[in-house]
Write a structure and sequence with these properties.
The protein is an alpha/beta fold. The chain has one domain. Helices cover 32% and strands 17% of the residues. It is built from four helices and three strands; from the N terminus they run E-H-E-H-H-E-H. The N and C termini lie close together (8 Å).
Amino acid sequence: MHSNMQRSGGHAPHCQATGTATDKCRLSVNHAKINAIIESKQECGAAFPRIGVFIVSYNASSRVVETILRIPPELREVLEEIYVFDDFSKDDTYQVASQLSKSAKLI
């Protein structure tokens, strides 16, 4: 799996409940679906569709690592890419996410 950092010009929607990543905004993990994806990838090999995750961020240095690491580890293994788009944040969102992309935490 690879991860990319880019700066973009759009705005990311926030959680309607609080504007932050809270339990109210989190989806439950469906392990049966994740296992089905993993099994399908093993069966199909190179013919399996590529899966990517897109995260748009703005001034999210305090949340970007948590957000990426909330992707279940077993699902991260079948992802082709995780894209983080930074909307010209005034904080160090870009640097934090870029550093994470170089670390072993994503593997």
